[in-house]
Amino acid sequence: MEVRLSHTDPAEVGLDAKRLAEAEELLVSGLEAGEYTAAVYLVARHGKVAASGALGRLGREGTPPAAIDSIFDVASITKPVATASSLLALVERGEIQLDQPIRDFFPERRLPHLSGVTVSHLAAHTSGLPAWRDLYSAAHSHEETIEQLFQTPLETLPGEKHVYSCLGYIMLGLVIERASGMSLAESAAETVFEPLGMADTGFNPPQEKSHRIARTANCTYRKGVLIGEVHDANAFAMGGISGNAGLFSTAPDLAAFAQTMLNGGEFEGTRILGARSVEMMLANQIAPSVGGQAYGFFVRPNGMLWYGDSFSNRVAGHTGYTGTSLLLDPEYDMFVILLTNRVCQSAAAEDAPDFLNRRRLFHEIIAAAVR
Fold it and tell me: Under DSSP, is residue 281 helix (H, G, I), strand (E, B) or coil?
């Protein structure tokens, strides 16, 4: 699938072409340094693509070359694109209330330790749940994985502290499933992906698309190269469909989603969310003294928002552990997509700071391109 936004000369949308070229050169140097085998990027402003490119191959030698529509495991970008957007669609229908206790959705369980935790707490990472826990090692089924999750005690009182929690979003995915009566994959497809024509976005991509999928490796739970199988071990234990990770997507599909957010919830005549819901996804929903977190996206002040310092104070974004990122700036009316497969390389390389520094510099250079 090609990008549905029209292409333009960078100067036409107030971007410096030389700076954008420098950003691509930075990605080329990361490829040469062995930080990833594939990199796809797209920069758009005022509804038009100013720069895009596909570099490298989808895996090691002999694999297909990367293309603009190559499919990547986007990891935690699942949280805003699939989970938070599906949640707010259900809120708009009246099927979920943000201040609703999560225990309401699981009446068959005794969950005294989750008393006081609301849907909003999960969506804004203030539930008190820990950042992460190994749910997969002691579980031998989807049901046992969920049991491990619900047995996890809180570390802080709800609303007291911002802790970026994959566990919270796994639980939020289960809330969405209970409220919608369908899987998270089905809910996200019905409310977001299908209306926006995001044909290559979804969980557990079909085998016939494997030749277009960027390879990953070095999962803590499984050995070997993964093709179309989620890298995150907890998401894998959930059957590949989880609120924290598991989504596969492309630059063109993410561009449609990003432009929808910048348009206030509408794209090409199709509305998936109201303007207020989009605001809740892009603006801080917790006290600044606690942190910076919208429903789904990181916002200022949040140390996990790897924005360039030259972006505006309204910048919002999210990363994925596999080497992906999506950044939107409503004030500059622009978005930046970067998809790589840094976890295709050696385990030592994926944890090295080089890629993280490179990603930050990539966005800094693009921010500096704004005239």
Answer: helix
What is the 3-state secondary structure of 116-138? CCEHHHHHCCCCCCCCCCCCCCC
Pairwise CA distance, residues 189 & 116, whole Å: 31
What is the spatial distance between Cα 68 and Cα 52, in angstroms, rounded to a whole number? 8
Look at the chain and count its residues: 371
- Distance from C-alpha of 232 to C-alpha of 245, rounded to nearest angstrom: 7
Q: What are the residues whose beta carbons fall under 8 Å from the beta carbon of 215, sequence distance 6 or more?
A: 37, 58, 59, 60, 63, 225, 226, 227, 341, 344
The DSSP symbol for 189 reads: I
CA distance 15 to 23: 12
Angle (nearest 5°) at CA 51 between 75 and 268? 75
Read out DSSP for 45-79? ETTEEEEEEEEEBSSSTTSPBP-TT-BEE-GGGHI
194 vs 325: CA distance, rounded Å = 22
* DSSP codes joined into one string, 296-336: SSEESS-TT----TTS-TT-EEEEETTTEEEEEETTTTEEE
Helix (H) or strand (E) holding 31: helix 17-32
Q: What is the Cα–Cα distance from 79 to 297, expressed in whole angstroms?
A: 8
User: pTM score, two decimals?
Assistant: 0.97
Residue-level pLDDT at 222: 86
| Partners of residue 270 on adjacent β-strands | 267
Q: Quick one: pLDDT at residue 218?
A: 86
Sign, Cα dihedral of 350, 353, 357, 358: negative
7 forms bridges with which residues in the sheet? 49
User: Which CATH number does 6-83+185-368 carry?
Assistant: 3.40.710.10
Identify the bridge partners of residue 371 per DSSP, sorted by sequence position.
none
Q: Give pLDDT < 50 ranges for the chain.
A: none
**Structural Rg of the chain based on CA atoms:** 19
- 10 closest CA partner among 51, 55, 40: 51
With vertex at residue 124, the alpha carbon angle to CA 45 and CA 276, rounded to the nearest 5 degrees, is 55
Amino acid 350: pLDDT: 63
Residue 77 CA to residue 325 CA, distance in Å, equals 7
